[in-house]
Fold each of these.
Amino acid sequence: MWDNHQALRGLANALRLAALAMLLYAGGFWLVHSPLFPVRSIYIQGALKRVTPVQLKYIAEHELAGTFFTLDIDKTRAAFQKLPWVRDAQVRRRWPDALFITVEEHVALARWGENGLIDTNGEWFDAASDQNLPVLIGSAGSEKTLATALPKIQQALSRSGLSAVQVEMSARGAWRVELSNEIRLELGRDDVEARARRFAEYWKGNLAALPYKIEYVDMRYPNGFAVRMPDYKGTPAHKTKP
């Protein structure tokens, strides 16, 4: 081999290429990790109502680590998502030293029992709120179903002038609604919106005029409804046909 000049030239070229590659790698490694390329500017974007500048500043100062090149985008995104009202955060670099972070907040729709909130996407999140929100009650995994149904039930009740302050779905899929005037509305498992709409019509036409305190209205009857009035001196339950 040592007498083969062509092979020796090939070996020398290969060694030179390897040395050049190692030099480029070392230079690139130094460039990427060099403190000469810090993140100097952080820009926060998004319609923020609940997330405060103090919270964002704390995350920026205590959770972000690395240079412009080495900063971990996924970890940075996760750091901002730790904030209670942050639903999502998108992070992107902009040369030479800027970081742009777009923050999406949760929009609270209701309270989830006594533990946390439900947003308009049907997602549970743990945050404090002083808003006057209806309460949703259901089994684990039913959050989205209840969140989807709530606006429809509210719309169905709108003609009555009443609103739902609590909506509950049992493990068997039966719906119960507590109204703003403290009446309990039993809607059963089927045709929930139609039954709520039917109640609204009867409320404006008949029920609101009754001179008794109404405890609950049961709309599960196909051709009528039952009304529980504790002050009524007749039968315990007053059944009415339209």
Amino acid sequence: MIREMTKADFEAFWPTFFHIIQAQETYAFDPNMTLEEGYQLWCTLPDKTFVFVESGDVLASYYIKPNASGPSRHLCNCGYMVSEKARGQGIARKLCKHSQTVALELGYKAMQFNSVVSTNEAAVKLWETLGFSIIDTIPNAYKHARFGYVDSYVMYKWLDTEVR
């Protein structure tokens, strides 16, 4: 089930969130942030944050927020996290599809991922199968904990089928 995230949900999700930022393989977040800083970043600043819950366990989450303002306010940005025990089960795909529907409901016309780490091959492949394109490569944009400096991709998808 996908629903809006509560503070209690985030607290339950915190071990996954913290593990992901500590790994320094996918997110350019401070690996030493506190639970409260994480909550502000993931749940308060975005327009909305959602959670995927199964059998009472918080397994994944995503946020949706503006990618820009003014004349580019129609572009949104999302971030997704899935717990290690729930990976490979299609949850990220479900969250991404859900986020695209929510984006349109919120008035967004396009979605852009600003920094998909090139070594995160599963995510790159998934986003491409869901219609996203790599529109730019940022050389050495991410200092990966295991691989050192690696490229990041800017990925983009136009969502609104009625306006182009």
Amino acid sequence: MTAHLGYFASGVLFIVLIALPALAYWLLGLNEIVAFWLAYILTRPLGASFADWAGKEPSAGGAGLGTGWVSLALTILIIAFVAYVTITRKDVKNN
């Protein structure tokens, strides 16, 4: 809000910022723990920017879907991803 970028542009900015620790880890040898935490911290404003963009009215710079629909869609996505990982067990390493 302070920089007057708007919700969508802020989301794009945070995508770029979240890529920087990954690139620094890959190209410059940034410590993996530092890279993880920097990227992890940026996930909150990234998600908030896109959720706000989707939910706010077009007059406020959003897509106009409404916060209820955005919350419902994200809840369904989270449930689907958790169910997928639970069923496929893709998160379990084989020894």
